[in-house]
Amino acid sequence: MNPTSKARPLVELLLSVAGFSVALAVHTFVVGGGLEPGEALIGTTASSLAFWVATQLKNDYEEELSGAWVILLELFCLGAGINLLLHALMTYGFFVRRTPFLVVAGSFVSAAFVALERTWMTRHPVAQPQFLLIGCDSTARRVLETTGAKVAAYVPDPSCDWTPKGNPQIVAAAGVERFIADHRPTDILVGTIQWRSLISPAAIFKAKLDGLAVEDAPSLYERLYSRVCCVRLRPMDFLLSASLRGDARTMAIQALYNNLIGIFFLLILSPLMLCLTIAMWATGDGGPIFDSIECAGFQYIPFRLHRFRTCRNDGKAPSMAGRFIERFHLEDLPQLVNVVRGDMALVGPRAVRTEFANHLTTVMPFFSHRFSVKPGILGWAQTHRGSSDTEIDEIEYDLYYIRQGSLWMDVEIMLEALFGRRTA
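Below the sequence we write its predicted structure tokens.
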């Protein structure tokens, strides 16, 4: 846990005040007044407080791995929405005038200030956490080696002969509670399933009550890599955890904007799709223009996925129009029809052929959780998967999306697809 996190709400309140003050100054310079000093003071104060409340509703300090522009969009939408409601209340209830320009511009400038602050603090922490590592398995070892986190002390796991770098202090299992009381590490990382043999649950509970950040390796793995750790998933996670299944309320909201946005883009892009179809017919060798693939959808319900067929009949080289379609990544445009029909969503796990889905579910039982939501044209895995990632990594990204799926996450994925994936 960042030791400066307690001061960050105050910093963000000051940034909110600064943002609306800048908007007021610009409005005064451009318009030449228009607001009484009392109205300007009340409006700016109320707007700053309302926007600050919005930032605290979206204050995932420990999970700010998104780009600054994604954070800016989220804060602007939330802050401007709350401020517009406040604007209506103050105008019609208290007769205090506020212009829409001040509401929107102030929210945007404040969102930009807060987004830059959060991004900078995430990338330049004031102090590195001091970990007390309780045991270590392959997941904890991978996280520590990748991040280079400093382990101040280590409670050895008899089943693991690996020792963290940096010559950490070795603490015997019997002396863990005294070490925590004397040295006060900032974070406790539980790095093994067999942690009860190294530290008592009462000691973990007391540490959390004392304000220490206690986290297990899979949770840290998920927070850092934005994907679920499949290696540490247990059978009980599949049977009892609702977080690995799609949320019904979220899916209902997604269905509304999926249909609306899908119809909108299908109408807008229909002339382009028609031109591409004619070009494929004119430059092809008489083969089919579209591929129609049977895939497993929501709850394994089969459907026919449509996409432009860019290769010739021999399957070796794309046609002239096919090369154009591949160059500009237009082969998936016909899937908008699947979205409008309800077979797919705009955002979701990548669609999988039915035969592959059945086989992979047999080999990897957790693969079945991908089908608790609709497959999508875009996905968390597609925008975040690197060239060195494996199929298991893609499944981990998909499970993370199912667990964390929301409107904000869908917006982030669509923006990432438009402007390029984020860089850590």
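Residues 248-283 form the longest helix (36 residues).
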